[in-house]
Amino acid sequence: MDTTRLSLNQATVRPLTLAQTLRLCARHQIPAVGLWRESIAAAGLADAAAAVRRSGLHVSSLCRGGFFTHADPAAREAARSDNLAAIEEASVLAADVLVLVSGGLVAGSRDLGAARRMIADAIAELVPRARDLGVLLGIESLHPMFCADRCVLSRLGDAVDLALTFPADAVGVVVDTYNIWWDSRAGADIARAAGRIAGYQLGDWVVPLPRDMLLGRGHLGDGAIDFPSITEHVLAAGYDGFAEVEIFNQQVWDAPPDDTAATVKERFAGVLGPVPWRGAGTG
Amino acid sequence: MDTTRLSLNQATVRPLTLAQTLRLCARHQIPAVGLWRESIAAAGLADAAAAVRRSGLHVSSLCRGGFFTHADPAAREAARSDNLAAIEEASVLAADVLVLVSGGLVAGSRDLGAARRMIADAIAELVPRARDLGVLLGIESLHPMFCADRCVLSRLGDAVDLALTFPADAVGVVVDTYNIWWDSRAGADIARAAGRIAGYQLGDWVVPLPRDMLLGRGHLGDGAIDFPSITEHVLAAGYDGFAEVEIFNQQVWDAPPDDTAATVKERFAGVLGPVPWRGAGTG
Question: Domain B6-272 belongs to what topology?
């Protein structure tokens, strides 16, 4: 049982405040946390950063920037400003990565290529500031069922292709099991992402999906995903960061948070127990 | 306006019997129909085939065979028998293709590769009979959101890879816009499928998806899909068969069938009007 690389993403315990989340992690000896900007804004950035520092928790990610695809130049400019703010927040919080969910089709358009080019241009504009502040941008591909309205980068390979056009110290990819598990090319694309994996997120694919597709994630082991296999690919690609458990699920949110944290930890150890963290050769 | 290559898939007017569907197509001068085995069984195969012949309609597909992934050898054998029956039906009906929806993960397993190998083995067993009867098997990739429970071939490229291992006169792929539109590799995979495209199905991706993901398809033009672009790729790959409009949608089923047929025809002409059917160079 090795949970030294476990991180709890705040989304898994969404009803909690930042302070409550930090205390929950401490109580359950979970060493890292993935943060959401909403909760940081609610606490105030400086206060939030101080609370995180006092907690001793590692910040494995800040969720999230992105949503770059807008027809209206003013909306694109607003997205740019918001992403610059997110970069500053990620820097102050010392997050390993700022997760980018890039946006769906431009309203009124069916042109996937145009949306993807808009995303590339928007990220290019952010790179100088990210490098100045030492923030790593992590492009996340989303499941194809979110292509139209949330992210036109539907395959991990799309995210890798885009990341590789930028300097490695500024842009990587976030591998999320829920979004990529079905892809016969996932292993090959993870290998192509060697040195570029900026974050790793875990959530299971539960059948059937609930009414709201966004809330269809389950605890590790409750669904269809082969976590050891994907994790071995991620480690073989040199990733030595944390693995965040990120579960959007109303039933999980309705459960007592201490039960959720205990389940997260137990499942992480049980499902990924045999996987040698800190590099495939050193377990 | 060119609807000479339009086919109405029976699923679009699911409440109708076979006879009603054939009359509907005749009334609206839709020249082809995609049939479902349930309606053929309800009418009786010989009677159904006679009715189709009398109608003068072309049969662009029979839906469907597949569901090959079973842990239990008896269940695999039952699937084999059922698929052999489907091949006979496709032959009697003179269908252009027998559509195969291959099946999800084997119950109790998370091994995508094992499920894919089981599908390859099952299709290999069917090929001799399909060739004997002159039936083309069409492997369809399904949207990744159906990977766990309906079809582990989630990318068109998965279907193409598998089809290419078999003789071209026995096995091809079915391109369905709804299942592949999000894929940045779709165009390249359609090109790889040159000479192997056994069927082409059209349905739009409507946002948001309804509660039942299976019923999320919309009339052409109501959603996110760029039909001219995909169709141009399909034609450039040499496809000269029919294009079936296949819409699973409760609201469509609740509408008067004549309204549905009129809308199908009008949208097909409107959305695909500029596309030169019968080969990209001959429009």
Answer: TIM Barrel (3.20.20)
Q: Taking CB atoms and an 8 Å cut-off, how many pairs form between chains A and B? A: 78
Put simply, the answer to whether B110 touches A225 (Cβ < 8 Å) is: yes
A149 touches chain B (CB under 8 A): yes
B152–A contact, CB cutoff 8 A: yes
Q: What is the ipTM of this complex?
A: 0.94
Give the contacts of A243 (CB within 8 A, at least 6 positions apart). Answer: A5, A6, A7, A200, A201, A202, A231, A268, A272, A277
The three-class DSSP label of residue B143 is coil
- Report the distance separating Cα A228 and Cα A177, nearest Å: 11
pLDDT in tens, chain A (283 residues): 478 999 999 999 999 999 999 999 999 999 999 999 999 999 999 999 999 999 999 999 999 999 999 999 999 999 999 999 999 999 999 999 999 999 999 999 999 999 999 999 999 999 999 999 999 999 999 999 999 999 999 999 999 999 999 999 999 999 999 999 999 999 999 999 999 999 999 999 998 877 777 777 999 999 999 999 999 999 999 999 999 999 999 999 999 999 999 999 999 999 987 677 654 343 3
**H/E segment holding residue A121:** helix A112-133
Q: Which of B102, B111, B145 to mutate to test the interface with A (most CBs of A within 10 A)?
A: B145
CA B192/CA B190 separation, integer angstroms? 5
Residues 6+ apart with CB under 8 A from A222: A204, A206
**CA separation for the pair A277, B135 (Å, rounded):** 51
